[in-house]
Design goal:
Largest sheet: 6 strands, mixed
Number of helices: 14
CATH class of the largest domain: Alpha Beta
Distance between the termini: 43 Å
Helix content: 25-40%
Number of domains: 2
Structural class: alpha+beta
Strand content: 15-25%
Length: 509
C-alpha cells in the first residue's frame, strides 16, 4: 500500500464513531463451547420497509434490515473501522482522486452468480444515478456525483473522481447487486450472510442463512423481522415471548423487563431534534427558532424519555464523531425562559403562536419527546399540537413533500462528516427543513473538498456552528439505544451505524 493509503487509514481510524457497549461485552463473548448453530428467532421492528431495493430504500429502519442481505465493497466493523467486504482490499491514491478496489475471489450473489467487475461498475453507477437508463426512482448516493470514471483493472475496479475527496471511502458501503437482475424490489438478491425468503407489507420480512457466504457464516438458520404497529404492541409481544429481540425500548419498558430479558445499552448514533420548516411562518424568522431552542430543557427530555441515558447535543453532529464534533455548541441554548419570551416579542409574537409537530406514530421515543416539548413550549406561550402520522405519510409528506411546520425524528448517516450534514445545503434534495444559508453552503463545500484533515475538521465545525447560531433546528440529543434480547441468545452487537446485524447472534448452549 502506498503511503497515502496508510495515512488515510490513520485518518479514518481517528474519525470513527465508537459504539457504546456498556453491558454488551458479556453478551458478545463467545467460544465454541457456548455457541449453538441453527435455530430461528423473531426480531420486532416498528416500521414497514419502504423498499426492498437497496438503492431505493430511504428509511434507516429499512436499511437496518437490508444490511443482512446486501454488502458493499467495504463495510464497517463494530469498532468503526472500514474493512473489506465484496472487495478483498482497497487503496486510495493521488491525494484522494483515485480509489482502487481488488475484488474478492468467488463471491456469489444469492442467485448463485459470481460477482464480477461489471456488477460492481453497474452498482456504483446505478447508486450514483449515472446509468444511461437510470431509474428516476433510485435514491442516488449524492456523494458519488464526483465520480468521473469507473474502470476495470486486472483484479477489480478503479474509481476516478473529478475532484479529490478523502471522505468517499465511507460511501462504498453502497450495495453491490447483479447487473442482469431486475426484480430487487420484490425478491432482493445480494451477497450478505442472509438471503431473502419473503416479505409481507406491514407484517414481516423473513430471511434465511446464506450457506454460500464467503465470510464467517451466520449462526441462525432463519430470522423473521416482525413489523409491529408500534413500541407498545411490540412490548406486549416481548412479554408474551413471541419476540426475541426488540431494539427500541423506552426507559419504562426496560425497567419492566428486569429479570425477564437481557437489556443491552448502546448508542443509536442519531441526531434527534425538533426539526423546523425554515420556509414557513413563524419559523422563517431566526429569532423565533432561537426562542424555541431557549425554551427547551434537553436534560429534562432525556431524563423523561430515557432515564438520563443519551447525550445532549447542540448541532447536527454525533458526540462520538469526536474529530468533527464541537462540544462547546451544547451550551449555546441553555434553557432560558425569559430570553425565549424576549425573542418572541422582538419577532412580533409576544402572545405566542400555534403550530403542529408531525411525528411518525411508530416511534414511541419520538412521540414521548414531543409530549415533553409541548409542555416546555407552553411555558413561553407557544402552543404546539402533535399530529401522529404513519411512516409512509411521513416519508411522502414531510421528508419528500416538505409539508410540515415541524417534525421530530432521528437522522442517521454514513461514516463521513459530509453525510451527517447532507440535509442542510440549499440545493439538497434531502433538505426537508428548507434551510438556506449561503455561508453554510460555502463552508460545507470547502469542507468536503479539503484534503488536509485538520482543515477539514475545522471547516466542518465552522459549518456546525452556523447551524447552531442560525437555529436551523432545535437539537436535542444523540439517543441511547436500549435493546431487549432473549436471555437464551448471545452475540448481539452494536455498530457505529444504524443496523441490526443478525449474523453474530446465536443461541447459547
Amino acid at each position: 500500500m502506498k503511503k497515502v493509503f496508510l495515512l488515510m487509514m490513520l485518518l479514518t481510524l481517528s474519525m470513527v464513531l465508537c459504539a457504546c457497549k456498556d453491558n454488551t461485552e458479556d453478551n458478545n463473548k463467545q467460544d465454541s463451547d457456548s455457541v449453538s448453530y441453527g435455530g430461528e428467532i423473531v426480531v420486532g421492528i416498528s416500521q414497514d420497509l419502504d423498499s426492498l431495493d437497496p438503492h431505493k430504500a430511504v428509511a434507516a429502519g429499512t436499511k437496518e434490515v437490508l444490511y443482512n442481505i446486501f454488502e458493499g465493497l467495504i463495510k464497517v466493523d463494530k469498532d468503526g473501522n472500514f474493512v473489506p467486504a465484496v472487495a478483498a482490499s482497497y487503496e486510495i491514491t493521488d491525494g484522494g482522486l483515485k480509489y482502487k478496489f481488488k475484488l474478492r475471489d468467488n463471491v456469489k450473489f444469492h442467485n448463485g452468480k459470481v460477482v464480477t467487475a461489471d456488477d460492481v461498475i453497474y452498482s456504483l453507477k446505478r447508486a450514483a444515478g449515472k446509468l444511461e437508463t437510470s431509474d428516476p426512482e433510485v435514491v442516488t448516493v449524492s456523494a458519488f456525483s464526483i465520480i468521473s470514471e469507473i474502470n476495470k483493472t486486472d483484479d477489480g475496479v478503479e474509481v476516478v473522481l473529478s475532484e479529490p475527496n478523502t471522505e468517499l471511502i465511507g460511501f462504498f458501503t453502497s450495495s453491490i447487486i447483479p447487473n442482469d437482475y431486475d426484480d430487487q424490489a420484490k425478491a432482493p438478491v445480494g451477497t450478505g450472510p442472509f438471503k431473502f425468503v419473503s416479505f409481507e407489507p406491514l407484517v414481516s420480512f423473513v430471511m434465511a442463512k446464506n450457506d454460500d457466504y464467503y465470510g464467517e457464516k451466520a449462526y441462525l438458520d432463519k430470522v423473521t423481522f416482525k413489523i409491529t404497529s408500534g413500541g407498545d404492541s411490540a412490548f406486549m409481544e416481548l412479554l408474551a415471548g413471541s419476540i426475541d429481540i426488540f431494539p427500541y425500548l423506552t426507559n419504562e419498558q426496560a425497567a419492566q423487563l428486569e429479570g425477564k430479558m437481557d437489556v443491552l445499552d448502546g448508542t443509536m448514533n442519531l441526531v434527534q431534534a425538533l426539526f423546523l420548516n425554515n420556509a414557513v411562518k413563524p419559523f422563517d424568522d431566526v429569532r423565533v427558532r432561537q426562542a424555541v431552542c431557549y425554551a427547551l430543557d434537553r436534560n429534562e427530555i432525556i431524563n423523561v424519555t430515557a432515564g438520563g441515558r443519551g447525550d445532549v447535543i447542540g448541532t447536527n453532529m454525533f458526540p462520538s464523531f469526536a474529530k468533527y464534533y464541537d462540544a462547546s455548541l451544547v451550551d449555546n441554548y441553555k434553557t432560558n425562559i425569559d430570553k425565549a419570551k424576549e425573542l418572541l416579542k422582538e419577532a412580533g409574537y409576544e402572545n405566542g403562536f400555534t403550530f403542529t409537530i408531525k411525528i411518525p406514530s411508530n416511534y414511541d421515543f419520538h412521540v414521548k419527546t414531543g409530549q415533553v416539548i409541548v409542555s416546555q413550549l407552553a411555558k413561553v406561550g407557544i402552543k404546539a399540537e402533535i399530529q401522529l402520522i404513519d411512516w409512509g405519510t411521513w416519508l411522502s409528506d414531510v421528508y419528500k413533500g416538505r409539508q410540515h411546520d415541524a417534525t421530530i425524528i432521528g437522522l442517521d448517516s454514513q461514516m463521513a462528516p459530509s453525510d451527517v450534514l447532507r440535509f442542510y445545503p440549499t440545493d439538497s434534495s434531502k433538505n426537508f427543513m428548507n434551510y438556506s444559508n449561503a455561508q453554510f453552503d460555502e463552508v460545507f463545500a470547502k469542507a468536503k473538498a479539503a484534503v488536509d484533515e485538520t482543515e477539514k475538521a475545522n471547516l466542518y465545525r465552522e459549518a456546525e456552528k452556523i447551524l447552531t447560531e442560525d437555529a436551523a433546528a432545535a437539537y436535542i440529543q444523540s439517543p441511547a439505544q436500549l435493546v431487549a434480547v432473549n436471555s437464551k441468545l448471545g452475540g448481539y452487537t452494536f455498530y457505529p451505524i444504524y443496523v441490526q446485524d443478525m449474523s453474530t447472534v446465536y443461541f447459547k448452549k
